[in-house]
Amino acid sequence: MNYRNLAGALMLFAAGATGCSQDETDVAVAEGYVVTERDRQVMQIERFETVLEDWERRAKPGPLVQTYRTTVVATFDPGEPVFEPEPGRTYWYENLGTTTPYYTTILGNEGTAITEFSANSSQVVVGDAATKEIIASNELPSEMRAAVHGTVMSPDGRYIYIVGPRPPATEGTPDTGGGVDLQTQATLLKIDALTLQPVKTIDAGARMHHGQVFQDRYLLFDSFGRTGDGLNVFLLDPETDEIVGGVRDEDLGGSPYLAFTDNEFIYVIMTPFGYGPGSFVGSIQLVEGDLTTMRPIWVARIDPATWEVVREYPVPGFRPHWIVIDSARENMFVTKGASANVSKINLESGEILWTTGTAGLGPYGLTLNADESEIWTADKGEPAGILGRTVSVIAADGGQQRHTVFAGYMIDHILLAPNGRELWGTSNREGRIYVFDQETYATSHVIDMPKFGDPHGLVWVHYDDNGNSMVVRDQGGFHNGVNPALGTALDY
Questions:
Q1: How many domains does the chain have?
Q2: Which of 18, 136, 222, 348 is the most exposed place for a label (fewest CB within 10 A)?
Q3: Pick from 146, 142, 124: which is nearest to 134 by CA?
Q4: Residue 33 DSSP one-character state
Q5: Which one, of 340, 255, 354, lies nearest residue 300 by Cα?
Q6: What is the pLDDT of residues 269-299, one digit of tens each?
C-alpha cells in the first residue's frame, strides 16, 4: 500500500478536492502534510476490503446445539373471550410495555402536550386490520409487568407470548421498578388470544427480546440476557412450550443481537465481545466519541437441521439492527444504527452489492414493499439519542434514496401489512402505531395505544372461512401462504 498517495488523497478529499490525480496526491504529501505512525496503522485497516480479505471465522466448527429444559412456573384460568373473531377477517395484535412514561413529554394529535400516562403494567391489544380500530385490550396485573420489546404469536394464532416477570429469587433490577436490567433473566407469559389473559408463566432460561414464527411450526426467539445454562437464540415448540434447540454466544464467537429466518436458515446479527452489555455493544460509546472505531460486525447463518454455522457474512458499518431477506432468498438487507446506513448483501457470494446512508439517524427496523422494489427503514435514532422521526425509502435494486417519510418519534418496528398496500410502524416514544400508504407515502392512520403503552412488534392473524386462525405476518415475514410479493396478498 502506498501510504503517501493514500494520505494525500484523504487530505484533498477532506478539503473538498475532486478528480485529483496520482501526481497531485504525491505533491500534497510532499508539500508538508504529516502522516504519523498512528495514521499509518489506521490506513492498514480502514478500508472495508481489508475486513473481507482477512476474515477469520468467529464461530466454533461443528454442531453447536445446546438445550435448556423449560419449567412452568404458574398456570392461570384464561377467562372468557373479550371478542369473537369473524370468519374471513384479519386482526392485528400488539404487545405494549410501560417505558413511555419515562420519556420526555410528547405532543398529542392536536398539539396538546400529553403528560399523564396511566399504564401500570404490560398490555396486550387486538384490533381490526381493515378498520384499524382497537377491539379489546388487557392490562396485566402489576406483578406481571416487564420490559416489553416484541410481539410473538404461535403459528396457529391461538396464543401470544410476552416478556413476564423474573423467576423467583432472580437477581437484578426488578421490572416493576423504574429501572430495568435487560441482561438478567425473565419469564415468558403465554396469553390466550381470545381472552387476552395469561394461561401460564414459563421459565425458558432467558429474557426474550424478539421472536417470530419459524417454518409455520416453531417460534424463533433471541434474548437480551440468560442464565448460565440458558440460550441466546433458540427454537421453542408452542405445542409443548419446550425448547428444541439453540445456541450460546461463546460458541458463536460474539454477542448475538437479533435473529431472523428465511424459513430454512437462521440468521443471527453478531457483534464483537468486549464493548459492554450485549444490548448496546459499544454503539453508544462510538456515537458519543469515546471510540474512534470498533471491531467488525457480521451475520452468522445457522442450519437448524445441524445447528452448525454454515457461513459468516462480514457487514460494513456498526451496531447492526435488522435483517430482511427477499422472497427469492437471494439477498439480505441489514440496517446499522451507529453508522446510520443499510447494506444489501448477496447470500450466495457474500458480495456487498451496495451500502447507503439513511435519511435519519439510528435506523432499526426494515421492510420491503409489496413488489420488493423499495426498502423502508425505521430511523429510530438508536443509539443516537433514540429520538428519530423519519422513515427512509430506498431503491432495493441500486440503493438510491427515493423518499423520506415524516413519522412518529422512535419508530422501531416497521412491517408491510398482509394486504400489500400499507406499512405499519410502532412508535415507542409516542405510544402509537403509524400506518403509511405504500403508493403515496402519506400517513393514513395514527392509532393511539391504550394508556399510551409502549408498542413493539406486530402480528396479523387471519381467520379463514371455516373460522380457523393462522398467523399471516409477523416481524420475521409472511406465513401460511400469504406474501404480497408472490401475488398472494390478503384483500381485507
A1: 2
A2: 18
A3: 124
A4: -
A5: 255
A6: 999 988 876 555 567 888 888 888 889 999 9
